[in-house]
Amino acid sequence: MSHAVTTDSSAASPAQGTGSPQGSSSAPGLFRRFVSGSGLVSVLSVLVALLVGALLIILTDKHVTAAASYFFGRPSDTLTAAWDAVSTAYGALFRGATYDPSAASLSGQWGILETLTQATPLILAGLAVAIAFRAGLFNIGGMGQIIAGAAAAGWVGFGLHLPAVIHLPLVILAGFAGGALWGGIVGWLKAKTGAHEVIVTIMLNNIALFALLILLRGPFKAPGGNQPVSAPIDETAMFPRLLGQEFRLNWAFVLAVLAVVAAWWLLDRSSLGLKLRAIGANPAAAKTAGMLVSRGYIIAMLIAGGMAGLAGAAQLAGTERTLDDNIAGQLGFDAITVALLGRSTPWGTFWAGLLFGAFRAGGQAMSVQADVSLDIVLIVQSLIVLFIAAPPLVKAIFGLERSKRAEKKAAQKSARKAGQAA
Predict the structure, then answer these.
(1) Domain regions of the chain by residue span
(2) Torsions phi, psi of 370, nearest 5?
(3) HEC secondary structure over the chain
(4) Whole-model pTM?
(5) What is the tens place of the pLDDT at every residue in 142-169?
(6) Structural domain 38-395, CATH architecture
(7) Rounded distance between C-alpha atoms, residue 102 and residue 114, angstroms
């Protein structure tokens, strides 16, 4: 698919066109590749989305509306009100995602820790989408794979009673296995029958959700409860808090970082990753070269599903503790956004997950402190995806295509002059 070709080329590690030895690019060379590549488009996409969000804040602010009623009499009042609305909203968003000294509680002050907590499942689920993208598969089944992983982890968490040193690793393994099984179904059907992964993952999302509801009304239901909610998993199955009980940040974030490192090594340093990227770039050429494309699809979806399953386990054993039908929430679809913003590279996905974790953590503060609808944050996130999916639009807004064409013409002119002089 086109996603895989684009992301694979953007993730290439050797230095190209800089004259530097491989792996030892100079800082100017790295900067040139960033500016001319997809990294700049990602940054500019976020910037444009924030500018559109600022416009929406201005249009919906009651003080701006009141000042606009006499705009031609005193235009400065409207401009001041607009600046106050945007600066207050984005200031609250930033403080809520990083550090707010005016907050009443210690946990409210250190918003950066809540950002990391919110980012943890986003990073893991984003890796699930990114790995599949690199293999040429559009994995929109994150929701089903997260549910499968959370269900398996939950069964181990409240069904078994073991010491923490055994219990938590089993919960993690169960989460990975549940997600891998659900993702493996997609890869197997793609490999053996040619079924399109988009259709299959959509159907499996629904199957996972309704299967979970059946379990929550049956064997998973909490004793004596009336709602479709499981019993809480044992304390020994929970991820310990990293910085004390006052903060929600837990060791699942460390698991997410380790998963990023593992995905980076798999895709960029292993022979299996080379095969998966080759299959994603051109399945026909990979098959001609002797690679087993069908096996590659299955392996890619097993690993991708496992990463999503880890996201489900991190959600359950990290913060939620009980299993319900909303355990996945919007994670499955937010993961697509994170992977797209991260250009389907492991470390790009990591930083994109942190950004969207900041949006989640800071959005609540913006809503409370600045009286701005939380929907503004959701619109900004959606706009980021829109602009990333349309690089020519972003380049046209900032005139990047014109400057690139001018550079190309200048280079051609210089080459002609050099030829004439020779």
Answers:
(1) 38-395
(2) -110, 0
(3) CHHHHHHHHHCCCCCCCCCCCCCCCCHHHHHHHHHHCHHHHHHHHHHHHHHHHHHHHHHHCHHHHHHHCCCCCCHHHHHHHHHHHHHHHHHHHHHHHCCCCCCCCHHHHCHHHHHHHHHHHHHHHHHHHHHHHHCCCCCCCHHHHHHHHHHHHHHHHHHCCCCHHHHHHHHHHHHHHHHHHHHHHHHHHHHHHCCCHHHHHHHHHHHHHHHHHHHHCCCCECCCCCCCCECCCCHHHCCCECCCCCCCCECHHHHHHHHHHHHHHHHHHCHHHHHHHHHHHCHHHHHHCCCCHHHHHHHHHHHHHHHHHHHHHHHHHHHHCCCCCCCCCCHHHHHHHHHHHCCCCHHHHHHHHHHHHHHHHHHHHHHHHCCCCCHHHHHHHHHHHHHHHCHHHHHHHCCHHHHHHHHHHHHHHHHHHHHHHC
(4) 0.84
(5) 999 999 999 999 999 999 999 999 999 9
(6) Orthogonal Bundle (1.10)
(7) 16
pLDDT digits (tens, 9 = 90+) for 235-255: 999 999 999 888 999 999 999
Q: What is the pLDDT of residue 40?
A: 80
Residue 68 tokens read as 């606009």
In Å, how far are 13, 62, 169, 341, 348 from 355, measured between CA atoms? 24, 29, 29, 10, 11
On whether the CB atoms of residues 29 and 18 are closer than 8 A, the answer is yes
> Token pair of 255, please?
């698991």
Task: For residues 322 and 310, give the distance between their C-alpha atoms in angstroms, rounded to a whole number.
Answer: 16
Lowest mean pLDDT among 171-175, 194-198, 265-269, 413-417: 413-417
261, 267, 273, 277: CA torsion to nearest 10: 160
- Tell me if 282 sits within 8 A of 119, measured CB to CB: no
More confident residue, 18 or 248: 248
Average pLDDT of the chain, as a whole number: 86
